[in-house]
Amino acid sequence: MTTGQWLQKNPRIEVVDALRGFAVMAIILVHNLEHFIFPVYPTEVPGWLDVLDQGIFNSIFSLFAGKAYAIFALLFGFTFYIQSNNQKRQGKDFGYRFLWRLLLLAGFATLNAAFFPAGDVLLLFVVVGLVLFIARNWSDRAVLVAAIVFLLQPVEWYHYIAHLLNPAHQLPDLKVAEMYAEVAEYTKAGDWGAFLWGNITLGQKASLFWAVNAGRFFQTAGLFLLGFYVGRKQWFVPSENHLRLWVKILIVSAIAFAPLYSLKELVMQSDAMVQQTVGTAFDMWQKLAFTLVLVASFVLLYQNGKFAKRVGGLRFYGRMSLTNYIAQSVIGAFIYFPVGLYLAPYCGYTVSLLIGIFTFLLQVRFCKWWLGRHKQGPLEYIWHKWTWIGGTTGK
Known about the structure:
By secondary structure, this protein is an all-alpha fold. It has one domain (about 5-385). It contains 19 helices and no strands. The longest helix is centred in the C-terminal third of the chain and has 30 residues, at about 270-300.
């Protein structure tokens, strides 16, 4: 059986569901440590707990910060391939239906942002998702080249070279720090009306502008296209050739990570302009390398039956990724913010991690229960149903 035949007969690829679940799990752990972008923590803790807290923070952030979202973005592009390919086999163009789907995602982004001050990534996906619409009929080579160009962070290099040629050239001041400070003020006030309205207006603006400064706009575009390319090449479909390819990706990415990380640390000792341009580029590159290490490792380990069985819960979690992602923001707001229980001042990194793990396990149990009775998660069902209003799914 060819990989194309396999994909047609098996519309879901287990490792992709599990990998998406892994990404959302990692995101929830990072978000809990950050108190969902609400940096209020205990002021006095025992020495031993402070050491443990710092160890927890460094470990979780080194492993997952900037990488979990990248896996999520890669799989967003892969999912676009699956949906567009299903329609293409019927002689239909998924592109305009996808634009409507992005508009629906903007609604979910607004719902998520209402409970997540200046931290929503879904609106970024909506904006950057336009690149998939534009590239949907490009050749494989064009898609890959465009992905590489975006991942190289061309805007950061433009600003760096422009500054070399003209020392007066500066990056545009997007006032991100000022916006986050204002978000923190109304969050501390504990007024539900100001909290919800501020989050879906100023908070979303702060999140998007922060993504510009952090190099995430171009990295997300590159990851979307890379996921689209991976889908076309069907690398997630198990075969000897594909597994050998993932081994090569693992080796090259692992070798590249160390020097890229060292160069990033070295660049961050330079002046502010270099840090904000070259430093951002190297930071994105070292995170990309580690992201590919995580993805390749997961794909290869998943071929082992014992590993696949042990992480089986991630498949259910990944199939309800949108529901889980938004639900964690609602839960986090209730736990940490003044509009809820306001436990942030009592939760250091260790306690916050335990809360994140407990929330994750609770969500996994809910996913298993729900999917035992329904084909899709509640928000996934709404998104799917509304995507195909007036059309057919192609299934």
